[in-house]
Amino acid sequence: MHTVTRLFIELGVNPTVHELNQDLRGREMERALARLLESSGSDVPAVFIGGKLVGSTDKVMGAALEQQSHSHAP
């Protein structure tokens, strides 16, 4: 299980995960995703929420860690 999937589950979200390497059209989707991400400056794997690109898993995890550090600050 990916770290970002665990994060969403811990937040009470039931994420839908699409593993491109397990889909017959995965290669085609990966190329389309790479073009989309290139224009946004993000990397694969990517996170979409409500059909909108949020960014790379690194970006999402970084935001979660930053939020967590602010919530524990004095």
Automatic annotation (TrEMBL):
Cytoplasm: is it a keyword of this entry? yes
Assigned GO CC terms: cytoplasm
Q: Which Pfam families match?
A: Glutaredoxin
Which residues does the UniProt record annotate as the domain Glutaredoxin?
3-54
Q: Which residues cross the membrane?
A: none
Q: Which InterPro entries match?
A: GlrX-like_pln_2, Glutaredoxin, Thioredoxin-like_sf
Classify the main location: cytoplasm
Which keywords are on file for this protein? Cytoplasm, Redox-active center
Q: Say if the entry is tagged with keyword Repeat.
A: no
* Entries under Gene3D superfamilies matching the protein: Glutaredoxin
The protein's location, in the record's own words, is: Cytoplasm
The record's similarity note reads:
Belongs to the glutaredoxin family. CC-type subfamily.
- What is the name of this protein? Glutaredoxin family protein
Q: Which organism is it from?
A: Rhynchospora pubera
Native organism taxonomy? Eukaryota, Viridiplantae, Streptophyta, Embryophyta, Tracheophyta
